[in-house]
Amino acid sequence: MANKGIHTSPETAGIQNMPPNYPDTHKDDLGTMKGLMPIWNRGFQNRENYKGLWTPETLKMEINAFFEYCFDNEVKPAKVGLSLWLGVTKQTLWVWEKESTDFKSDLIRWATSLIEMSYVGRAEKYPTANIFLLKSSHGHVETSRLDVVATNEQMQTDEVQDRIAQLGLDKPK
Question: Which of 67, 82, 152, 160 is 20 to 30 A distant from 170 in Cα terms?
Answer without folding.
Answer: 152
